[in-house]
Amino acid sequence: MKKVLVASLAFCLTASISANAQTVDLESNCNANDGQACFALGEAYYKGENQEKSYEKAFDYFEKGCEFSNPASCGYAGMMCANGQGTEVSHQRALLYYEKGCQLGDGESCFRWGNHYFNGTGVEKSEAKAVELYKKACDLGVGLACSNYGSALLTGLGISKDLAEAVIYLGKGCEMNIGQSCGRLGSMYAQGTEVEKSFPTAAKLFTKGCNLKDGESCLLIGFMYEGSDGVGKSASTAFDYFAKACEFNIGEACNLAGTYYERKLVPESTPQKALQYYLKGCNLNYGFACAYAGFSYMHGEAGEKSYEKALSYFEKGCELKNGFACGGIGDIYRDGEGVEKSDQKA
Description:
mainly alpha
């Protein structure tokens, strides 16, 4: 036992000495204008690898690495300025770092620079400039940039609509495991937009997108199982995908999962489970979910009868322009349930 302990301590000591020596070598190289060494030190301090995490030291090394024309260092320095990590928040400084990093060939710098133009953060909003930078970032291997550029081509946002090119760039994004890209490309195959209509291909793309945590993809493959478009009708499978889409905060999917429980289309269905999905859907601002939650409370379907809660959910649903919810408000005032009866408000 003592031998094992001694050996373990010796190993830890050797590893510590080796890490310290590596840090000293990197510092020496960084001070000798080696931008990659500065980046390595910045990354180590940023992630807390082999030394205590320090955003301040990380930023100093990234800033130095950028001065020595290391592309990734500029990208990290820009991100830290934008987020206020290790330095004051400054979108103007972030833009300068992103610009230099992008010009040096760092795709992430181009992508983040594009996001600033898209959102108008620290710079005048320009969708055209953002899309231009997304294309450059995509060409440099940033998957999300490919997805954004493909989506812009699909909708004509900031660029002339080009569906054929949209297929190419959304395909690139999907190949780089961007779920949103898979979902949007899947929709093009489902509708036969610029590609030969193919439900099986759409289903594969939606399934991949869903597995990559894209909620819209989960919702769409759920619809396919609900209607048997190229995959075979299955209520239980449709429900599973709706429930998963709900986990990814798609309000419509939460509402659908709730209706499956309410209509007893899946095992172990209860009004209580239905209500939980309706409540989440309403919190995600899906009007129908608010309406169904309101009716559940109005009739006491899940065990709790409350006209006060019913009215609050109907009002929210009505604000979301859901006529079903507006009708619920009318029912409550017409019958005078929990409120003063009012034909005018009804």
